[in-house]
Amino acid sequence: MWGRPIRMIAVAVVAILAASCAAPATSPDSDRVTAKAGPSTEPTESATAAQKPPSVDAGWPRWGFTHTGISANNITPQFEQVVARSLAKTPMLQNQHIMGFGALNPQPTRTQYFWEDLDSRTNFMKQSGGIPIITLCCAPDWMKGGPEGPTSQEGWAEHLEDAPYPQHFDDFAKLAATVAKKYSDVEYFLVWNEFKGFWKDHSKPADYKGYTELYNKVYDAVKAVRPDAKIGGPYLGFDSNRSGDTELRGDWGVVNQNVLDAFNYWYENKKGADFIVVDGASPTDAHELLPDEFGALSKFSAVTKWLREKTDDMPIWWSEWYFVPEDGTTWPENRRLAVQAASMMEFAKSGAATALYWNPQAKDGPCQGCMWNPKTGAELPTGELVSDFVKWFPAGAQLEDVSSSDPKVRVLAQPERLLMVNTTDAQVSTTVDGKEFTLKPYEIKWSGR
What residues contact 62, with CB distance under 8 A and at least 6 apart? Predict the structure, then answer.
């Protein structure tokens, strides 16, 4: 995953280079678009019995993205405005980490703070009408055995993922509280990222006691200064393998027992939580798609269902999700988009409250999976797909059981809108909702009802 070691190092190094390009936030004002389904003229997807999601804030869009090493605020002021205007048409959730992923060390010394990068990102969120989220990761160098002062290139490359030492858990909690107090208009906070530094060897148990201790200190510190803040954890990656002996399994594989043990310990020993945060990939750890790229997506529904049952129906957030094997595999863009759309259908049908797309923006050149063009800022098909889900399938959307006469076409439906996805590399004709449709290979088709 992007949040895993090799890619995190690359993103961290890019963050250093990007910081010098950060531009002050300047963009037109825009009215917030209410995330409700309304009339229109295109499709969506559904097919199995839909579960009603747990209650969330009115108008909660459910969908959004995480800013990474390079984002719209790191190019030029003009570029930033183009992207902000585009996003403002369909405001969505936007997430930013406090260190790494486009943000330099926020506390270089015990007495010195550096907010320029976080200010730039949060200002962009405001410009673009986004609902801001902050991930409380990662930790300044001096909290994890490094020196005080700006993070070195070696520090970014080798130690960004390190967890703070236990003797500095209180220091990190204090930093988290300082962030929450400074960014008082941010309501939602995720604590840490994928157990980084607490789980270096996934074949062995995670240090879930250490993470839970850090989480509880952060929870108490943030709630002390911001009782209104909503805090979620454990931001744990639900890894899966082809085989194994755990209760959470399916045709897509078996979730690692170490994951379930870590989650259960945190859940039973946490001070509190306003929502549950996890992430994961449909491929197994060995990059297998079981039984195929579309069948593997049922993992997302299975994990969401398990979490809702385990937590007495707390809101489930997917902070990241992945569906392409990370072994160098590349797909034609129409196939990649079809799998992404089908994965988002799984979140909607299983009642996930939130799903954040990890936006892999490049500074220039080709950028498969990017939400906007890295040269012009124009919306790309991935950005359009996320925006369409924001508009038509917010967390409280009423889903209806609509099927396709050809099972190769997946369908998601609400009273006024349909989404259909052809899961094959051949043209398919089908009847959906009493109408005839022909879909090109891997086509995503929206339709009014």
Answer: 35, 53, 56, 93, 347, 348, 352, 353, 354, 355, 389, 390, 393, 394, 395
